[in-house]
Design brief:
By secondary structure, this protein is mostly helical. The chain contains 1 helix and no strands. About 70% of the residues lie in helices and about 0% in strands.
């Protein structure tokens, strides 16, 4: 259970960084 929650939090953190980079016009994230 803890691993699942950790994975979700990690995914959200990565997705959040992608959104921030997208705002600044940087395409460093490969997730569309």
């Amino acid at each position: 259970m803890q691993m699942i929650v950790g994975g979700i939090l990690l995914f959200n953190a990565i997705s959040g960084m992608c959104a921030i980079y997208r705002i600044f016009g940087l395409s460093t994230c490969k997730i569309n």
